[in-house]
From TrEMBL:
GO molecular function: nucleic acid binding
A single Gene Ontology CC term: cytosol
Region described as Disordered: 164-186
Protein name as annotated: Ribosomal subunit interface protein
Length: 186
């Protein structure tokens, strides 16, 4: 980090043990993203008069080139946050998830859905047809597999997309969609 860790204790005395735990967790965050320029951590004891013990609120502010991330864990009704180390763990886990999401976004890790298989009608009979795929495979389909279309309107050469499954006699299309003039196949 370019700027040293800033650690603030509120409504509680500073603790060397808590500071050591915070420094260890910050070091681990730097493993997820090496461009962290600064980190500010606030540990606050929240006094609750209707409750026996204090609960702790932890806030982690991270600065990276072009980004600022804030992870905060407010104890609310979470009695586990009566332990400052549990509150630290939860806040730093949230910060780590944000860093991981930023890493994926920066690396352009975007999920792309594969386009369903497509092909052209090769043969039509009274109740079934055959689709020829781009790689030359022959896929059987029944007229009842056609979705939102009229089987009797299909012609050899029409382009279709389909969902494929293995039938008793080989590959077959479980649903077939005629591709109109305005459909784009990816």
């Amino acid at each position: 980090m370019q700027i040293p860790l800033e650690l603030t204790f509120r409504n509680m005395d500073p603790s060397d043990a808590v500071e050591a735990a915070v420094r260890e967790k910050v070091d681990k965050l730097e493993q997820f993203h090496t461009s962290i320029t600064s980190c500010r951590v606030a540990v606050e004891a929240q006094h609750r008069h209707h409750h026996k013990g204090n609960t702790y609120r932890v806030r982690v502010d991270l600065t990276l080139p072009g980004h600022e991330l804030v992870a905060s864990r407010d104890p609310g009704q979470n009695h586990a946050h009566e332990d400052v180390y549990v509150a630290l763990r939860d806040a730093f886990n949230a910060a780590r998830r944000q860093l991981e999401a930023l890493n994926h976004k920066q690396k352009r890790h975007v999920k792309y859905h594969e386009a369903p298989p497509h092909g052209r009608i090769r043969l039509l009979d009274r109740d079934h047809g055959r689709i020829e795929t781009a790689d030359g495979r022959d896929i059987y389909f029944h007229r009842n597999s056609l979705v939102n279309g009229d089987f009797d309107q299909l012609e050899p050469g029409d382009e279709v997309r389909f969902d494929e499954e293995m039938g008793d006699d080989g590959p077959q299309a479980s649903s077939v969609h005629a591709i109109g003039k305005h459909h784009i196949v990816g």
